[in-house]
Design a protein that fits this description.
The structure holds two protein chains of two kinds.
Chain A (H helix, E strand, L loop, with lengths): L1 H20 L13 E6 L6 H17 L2 E6 L6 H13 L4 E4 L8 H9 L3 E5 L10 E4 L3 H16 L3 E7 L5 H14 L7 E8 L4 H14 L3 E6 L2 H13 L7 E4 L3 H10 L5 E3 L2 H17 L9 E3 L5 E3 L5 E3 L4 E3 L4 H5 L3
Parallel strand pairs in A: 1-2, 1-3, 3-4, 4-5, 5-13, 6-7, 6-8, 8-9
Antiparallel strand pairs in A: 10-14, 11-12
Helix pairs in contact in A: 2-10, 3-4, 5-6, 7-8, 8-9
Chain B lengths: L35 H7 L20 H5 L2 H19 L6 H26 L7 H17 L4 H24 L5 H20 L9 H8 L1 E3 L4 E2 H19 L1 H11 L1 H6 L4 H27 L10 H11 L11 H20 L4 H30 L1
Antiparallel strand pairs in B: 1-2
Classes of the chains: A alpha/beta, B mainly alpha.
C-alpha cells in the first residue's frame, strides 16, 4: 500500500514535468545554413527593445538567410544578461547584438564569445571596447544638436525668438547638445531666429513647467521653446497649452512618443525627435550580418552598408552613429506612441 | 518518526544510544512521514515483554526506504530534465557548455546551503541578495582605495558575516520574527548600496579577484572555481547535518524549538550562528560574483533571495521547518539550473522559463500532498 502510493506520487510528479515541457520539444530545430543572429535586450518586456526586435526581423526578412533570435534577461542585471549570453555561446550562434546592462561586467563573457568566433557588437547601451567589435549609437551629439535647431526652424519658418529649456545646468548630455545647437545656429539660414534665453528645469516636471511660464512672461514675443530632455518637453508643452498659447508658441526637442502624443495632437508641438528603435534594431542586425558574411570589418575608419539606412561610418573606438534622430509629428505619433 | 522497536534479545542499554538528547530525531525525514495515528499503532510496547528497548542510532538501511524518498523523485526529475534537454538541443551534452552553465547558478547554490539550514530550523533569511550587494559595495570601495585580492576576499566575507550577525542579533536577542527582520534588512543593506552608488558602477578590481571568479580549478574537466567551492561546501554541510549531533540538534529545533530548549539545546545560539553563516555564505557569493563580473552596481544579485528559497523548497526542505536534506537541495539546484539552461538553449524567453519554474515548484510541492490526501481517503 505504502509503496503503491509513492509509486503513484512519483509517476504524477514525472508526468507533471513531462506535460510542462512537452510543448517545447516540438520547437523546430533551425536550419543549419542560416546565419543565426541574436539580439539581446537589456530586459524583456520593454517596448523600446520590442521595437528594436521588429526592426531586426525586418532586416532578417530582407536578407533572407538570417534567423533572428530575440532574447534577454527578465531582470535588467549584468549577471542575468551573462547567463543569456552563455546560452547563446553554447548554441554557437553566428552573431550577437547586445544592449548592455553594464558596460564592464559583460566584457569577460563577450570576450569569450569573440574567442569562439561569434561576431559581437553592442547597440544602444555599449559594452566596453574590449568586449565588442563595434558599438552602434542611435545617433551622435552633432546630429542631435543640429536636428533640434532644424525642427524649430522648419516650424517657425526661420523667424522669431526661441528659448532653450534644459535639464540641470550640470547635465553632461544636455550641455553638449546645447553646444552643438549653437554651432548649427551660427549658420546664416537662422539669422532671423534668435536664441533669447536658456533656462533649467532640472528634469523635474513641476520646475520645468514653472520655468516655461516664466519664459513666456519674460519674452512676450517668444515663438518657440527647444527642450532637449524628455521631461522638459512634456512640461513645456503642457505650460503652453495651459496658457492658451497653442499656435503662438511651439515646443520641440527630444521626447518619447507615448508621452508626447497629447502635446502633438493639441498642437503645442509641431515636430519633435528621438532615435527610432525600429531603425536601430534594423541597422544592428544588418551590421552583424555583414560582419558574419565578412563584407565589413567594423574597424575604425571603415564603413558598413546597412540596407535602407545607408552607409554607416565607424569612428574612433569603433563607435558608429546610425542617423540623425527620427522626427515625429501628427502623421506618425499615434503609431509610435503605442511602441515606446 | 521515532524508531522505537521492541528488541528484547539485544542487551543494549542507553549507552548504545550515545546522544539521548536528540534521540527523537533520526536520519532523514521524508515528506512521507507516518501520521500520528500510525505511529502509536506501530509502537506498542507491551508491559509483559521486556521493559528494555533500544533506540537505534539511526534507521537501519533498507533499499526500499531509499527508493521512496523525495530525493528519489528529484533524481527522476533530473533524469527527465537531462533527457528532455538532450532531445531538444544538440548543444546540451557538451562539457564546456555544461561547465559554463554551472557558473550561472553556483553562487546562488552556495547560499542555498545555509538557507536550507535556516529554513530547517524554522527561520528564513530574505536579505541574502542585499547582503551580496552590500558586501560587493564595500569590496568595491576598498578596491578603489587600493586593497589587494586577498584583502578584498577577507572584506567580502567579513561584511557578510557582520550583516548576518546583525540579522541574528535582531532575531535572537530582540526576538523579532526572522521574516520581518530580513525583509527590513533587505531594504536597508541594498539601500546603502543604492545611496552610495546611485547610477554609478565600481569597475576597478584587481586581476586576481577576477581570475577567482572567472577561471576553472582544473582545465579538464573544466570545473569552474565557484562550482568546485559549492561542491565542497555541499559535502561539508551534508556531513554536518546528517552525520553529527549538530545536525540532529537542527532537526530538533526545527521540529519543536521549545522541546529542543528543554532538552538542553542552546536554540538561540544555534540560530544566531546560522544567521552568521548565511551572511558569510552571501559574502562568499559576493566575492565570487564580483570577481566574475568585475563590476558592482546597486542592482547586483537582484531577486536572488527568491531563487535561493526556490532551490531549498524544491529540494524538499519543509518551509515550516524540521525536515529536509542537503542531497535534496543539491539535486534541486541541478534540476533548476539545468532546466533553465536547457530552455535557454532553445531560446525560450526568460519570462516563460520563470512561469515554468513556478509551475514546477508548485506542482512538486502540491502534487504529493494532494496525492497523499486522495490515497488516505481511499485507504479508509
Amino acid at each position: 500500500m505504502q509503496s503503491n502510493r509513492r509509486e503513484t506520487l512519483k509517476l504524477i510528479a514525472a508526468t507533471a514535468l513531462g506535460a510542462a515541457v512537452a510543448p517545447l520539444s516540438v520547437t523546430p530545430v533551425m536550419a543549419a545554413d542560416k546565419i543565426r543572429i541574436a539580439m539581446v535586450a537589456k530586459a524583456l518586456g520593454n517596448g523600446f527593445f520590442d521595437a528594436c526586435r521588429d526592426g531586426g526581423l525586418e532586416a532578417a526578412k530582407e536578407l533572407g538567410n538570417v534567423e533572428l533570435i530575440y532574447t534577454g534577461p527578465t531582470t535588467a542585471t549584468a549577471e542575468a544578461q551573462i547567463q543569456v549570453i552563455d546560452a547563446l555561446i553554447a548554441q554557437k550562434v553566428d552573431g550577437i547584438a547586445i544592449s548592455a546592462d553594464d558596460t564592464n561586467a559583460l566584457v569577460p563573457v563577450c570576450k569569450k564569445a569573440l574567442s569562439r568566433g561569434i561576431k559581437v557588437i553592442s547597440f544602444d547601451s555599449g559594452v566596453a571596447p574590449d568586449g565588442r567589435i563595434m558599438h552602434l549609437n542611435p545617433s551622435n551629439n552633432e546630429l542631435i544638436g543640429a536636428k533640434c535647431v532644424q525642427m524649430m526652424a522648419k516650424t517657425l519658418k526661420n523667424e522669431g525668438e526661441v528659448a532653450i529649456l534644459s535639464a540641470t545646468a550640470q547635465a553632461t548630455n544636455q550641455n553638449i547638445w546645447i553646444e552643438e545647437m549653437k554651432k548649427e545656429w551660427a549658420k546664416p539660414d537662422y539669422a532671423k531666429m534668435k536664441l533669447v534665453a536658456t533656462v533649467y528645469g532640472d528634469d523635474v516636471a513641476d520646475k520645468s513647467y514653472r520655468e516655461t511660464q516664466a519664459l513666456i512672461k519674460a519674452h512676450p514675443d517668444l515663438k518657440g521653446i527647444i527642450a532637449p530632455t524628455s521631461v522638459g518637453i512634456v512640461a513645456a508643452a503642457k505650460a503652453v497649452v495651459d496658457a492658451g498659447l497653442v499656435g503662438k508658441v511651439y515646443v520641440t526637442g527630444l521626447g518619447l512618443p507615448s508621452e508626447m502624443k497629447g502635446a502633438v495632437l493639441a498642437g503645442a508641438t509641431d515636430t519633435f525627435a528621438i532615435w527610432n528603435p525600429i531603425d536601430l534594431g534594423y541597422s544592428a542586425t544588418m551590421i552583424v550580418a555583414a560582419l558574419v558574411a565578412g563584407t565589413a570589418t567594423g574597424k575604425a575608419g571603415t564603413s558598413v552598408k546597412a540596407g535602407r539606412m545607408g552607409e554607416i561610418k565607424i569612428g574612433a573606438n569603433n563607435d558608429a552613429a546610425m542617423a540623425d534622430p527620427f522626427t515625429f509629428d501628427k502623421s506618425n505619433i499615434e503609431k509610435f506612441a503605442k511602441i515606446f | 518518526m521515532s524508531v522505537s522497536e521492541p528488541m528484547a534479545e539485544t542487551p543494549l542499554s542507553h549507552t548504545a544510544a550515545p546522544k539521548p538528547e536528540a534521540a527523537e530525531v533520526h536520519g532523514q525525514p521524508t515528506p512521507e512521514q507516518p501520521t500520528p495515528g500510525q505511529q502509536t499503532a506501530a509502537s506498542p510496547a507491551p508491559a509483559n515483554q521486556s521493559a528494555r528497548y533500544t533506540v537505534l542510532d539511526r534507521k537501519p538501511f533498507r533499499l526500499i526506504d531509499l527508493m521512496l524518498t523525495w530525493e528519489m523523485i528529484l533524481v527522476l526529475l533530473l533524469v527527465a530534465v537531462i533527457a528532455m534537454n538532450t532531445s531538444i538541443s544538440p548543444y546540451f551534452l557538451d562539457v564546456y557548455n555544461l561547465s559554463d552553465a554551472t557558473v550561472n547558478f553556483s553562487e546562488k547554490a552556495i547560499v542555498a546551503l545555509t538557507m536550507a539550514l535556516l529554513i530547517l530550523v524554522g527561520e528564513i533569511d530574505l536579505s541574502i541578495a542585499a547582503i551580496i550587494a552590500l558586501a560587493s559595495l564595500i569590496m568595491g570601495l576598498a578596491s578603489v582605495a587600493g586593497v589587494g585580492t586577498f584583502g578584498l576576499i577577507v572584506i567580502g566575507l567579513a561584511v557578510g558575516a557582520v550583516a548576518g550577525a546583525f540579522n541574528g542579533f535582531l532575531v535572537t536577542a530582540i526576538g523579532l520574527p526572522s521574516i520581518v527582520v530580513t525583509i527590513g534588512t533587505m531594504s536597508l543593506f541594498r539601500g546603502i548600496a543604492q545611496v552610495v552608488l546611485g547610477d554609478q558602477a565600481i569597475t576597478k578590481y584587481p586581476q586576481g579577484l577576477q581570475t577567482l571568479g572567472q577561471s576553472t580549478i582544473f582545465s579538464l574537466p573544466p570545473l569552474p572555481n565557484s562550482f568546485f567551492i559549492f561542491v565542497v561546501l555541499a559535502i561539508v554541510t551534508g556531513i554536518v547535518l546528517h552525520r553529527t549531533t549538530i545536525g540532529r540538534r537542527l532537526y530538533a529545533i526545527g521540529n519543536n524549538p521549545v522541546a529542543a530548549r528543554f532538552s538542553g539545546i542552546r536554540v538561540d545560539r544555534i540560530r544566531f550562528v546560522l544567521f552568521v553563516l548565511s551572511g558569510l555564505a552571501s559574502g562568499l557569493a559576493a566575492v565570487l560574483l564580483t570577481g566574475r563580473i568585475g563590476s558592482t552596481r546597486p542592482n547586483i544579485a537582484l531577486g536572488w533571495e527568491l531563487e535561493v528559497v526556490t532551490m531549498v523548497v524544491l529540494g524538499g526542505v519543509s518551509i515550516s521547518g524540521g525536515s529536509g536534506t542537503i542531497p535534496g537541495v543539491v539535486l534541486a539546484v541541478f534540476v533548476l539550473g539545468l532546466t533553465t539552461f536547457g530552455l535557454s538553449l532553445v531560446n525560450v524567453p526568460g519570462i516563460v522559463i520563470n512561469v515554468l519554474l513556478g509551475a514546477l515548484l508548485i506542482s512538486a510541492i502540491a502534487v504529493p500532498l494532494v496525492v497523499r490526501g486522495i490515497m488516505r481517503g481511499l485507504g479508509r
